[in-house]
Amino acid sequence: MPPSSVSTVTPWWRNRRLIPWIVQAAVGLVVLVVVAFLVGNLVRNLTAAGLLLSWSWLGNPAGFDVSETLLPFDASLPYWRALLAGLVNTLRVVLLGLVGATLLGTAVGIASFSSNGLLKRLARIYVELIRNIPLLLQLVFWYFVVFLALPNGTSAIQLPGLVLAKSGLYLAWFSDLWHLQWQGPHLDGGVWHAPLRLTVEFGALLTGLVVYTAAFIAEVVRGGVASVPKGQWEAANSLGFNPLQTLQRIVLPQALRVIVPGLNSQYISLAKNSSLAVACGYADLYSVAETTLNQTGRAVEVVLVLLGSYLVIDLVISALMNGLNHLVQLKER
Amino acid sequence: MRTALPSTPLQRLRRELFSSPLDGLISIGLIGFLLAVVIALVKWALFQAQWAVLQANSTLFAVGRYPLEQQWRLWLLTTLLVAATGLSWGLLRGLPRLDRVHPLWPRNDRIAVAVVLALALLAPLFLKLSWAIQLRWWLEAALLVATRWAAGRWASLVPPPARRLAPLIWPLLYFAGMVLISGGLGLIQVSPSEWGGLLLTLVESSFAILLCFPLGILLALGRRSELPLLRWSSVVYIEFIRGAPLITLLFLGQNILGFLLPGGLAPDRVWRAAWVLTFFAAAYVAEAVRAGLASLPKGQLEAARSLGLPLPQALIHVVLPQALRVALPATVGQFISLLQDTTLLSLIGLLDLLGTARTVMANPAFLGRNAEVYLVLALLFWCCCAALGLGSRALETRLNPTANSAL
How far is A304 from chain B (nearest CA, A)? Predict the structure, then answer.
């Protein structure tokens, strides 16, 4: 703000240097009063309820089970182990979801530039269909309508290296990493066995998150590719590049500069959306936290743990994507 | 469209689908796939699906456990809304911007009327509503078309002061609607815990959409302010909200809000959720508006200030009208996701559309009827969101200062 000529006759309420300070003081006062009011109430009410902030309950035995954990867990282990198991479950679905959504989203985004009119239109329909239906509705649809309706035993859906049954998703994997022994799913007494088994809850959540986020990523990719001038395609074509080479060597490196920042926000929303896992019965961080609150009544601590964990996940994704962004940006010398 | 190539439909089909052997293969594969999906879906919908789950629970899905003897209030509200919609629609078409040529009945409007009439005719039949209720829906549709026709026809007869006051019917109607729904002013109170289904979804989303917009604008202005305290408090608020999943914030609202306010002051569970949705959406709207503000050249504000306009007036008359026009698509995008986010209320035990669906499904009589209910809900949400998107695009064209297109 340019310094105004302060003359002696300027009254204080029109003083350009004073007004900002008055406004700030007023805003600061209001914020302070509101925060003090809320915190004061919080402390008073928590003291009255005997729930003043404490973390020692985290060491008490949880007494509930967390289904499908990567870390060994049983009901006699303390609450913090339960929350940790939930966090690991969240990270697992987020990591796989990021990979899946990126692959599917990129494919759909590029399909919208296909020379095939049908494929192009189908890609648009996919995006418009998925984006206008709430994610939670899609998750319950995948879980209750698709995955819980899968048949069991011999009538299960068998794909090469993958069996989809109501009792779980069975994947081919190395049964013995040392000797590189590959083993597919096999039926044994009416029950499927495989080196890698995922629950239908996990499968439904992962499918829902991937299909939903891919629609948004497809839009980001489409925008990125569209931002590369058409002349680039034509020039590459006249130099003898085939379409795939053009995409790979000419267009994508330029498009990535637009795509990566857009991906960042989609990745963060995928991480946040994974908290809807509770709708399809998957024990992620939020679902464990909800059970913990119901058992302990420690609302403030549980909410702090939740907010803190998601904030850290968001920040890590942002930091990684900013690093990637740095790599793909035009190097100016 | 984009090419000047010769195009009989057959040639166009050939160019788009079979321009090369690979394209042909892809097309044939996709056509087969699409046919299989459509045939399976139609077969399922006609022969396997049992629609009784929707027919038996249509009232529950529409209004929840709203007391039967008070439902006339909702009918009255619907009628008022329909009349106001027809009126605004007709006035909008009957009074085009002075710089535009605009037909009274553009093609889109004729399509919209056809869709509304078809829906009013078919949806009640499909839901097997009683004749009395079916008749009411027909009358509502007829009222919409009639008010649209009358307002468009005689729009130019409306005196200019009345034209300027016309948009005011909407806020008035909103307050009237809230009174009609919740009671007061001589009407019997209906507790929010008895609202449900579509009614609850619409109340929550409209409340949050209306309030988050001004809040978001204030936050965006705060974030771009030159005063550090204002800027930093806005930044902290926006980033805090955007860093947390909505479900954890709803969880916070249900479990901690009671501790944050003095005893008895904390609102009802339904209103708690509405406030959380509002504060949540405000942070996202703020980012959309901020992008709009950033797109304006700095000279706009400086010019307005140097003409002697005080800052608030410069913002209201010069900066915001331009910034909000740029921010419109992103803001409506946020409104659409807010409408979708109301489904999360079902996770904290409220009976919105999805929550109602989950309770209905828990009834043994309707066990396993998931597909029917969820597909219909998906269709409903899809239509609402797509309509909002279309409306946003229409508004963009109307507000666009240069484009001279008839919508």
Answer: 9
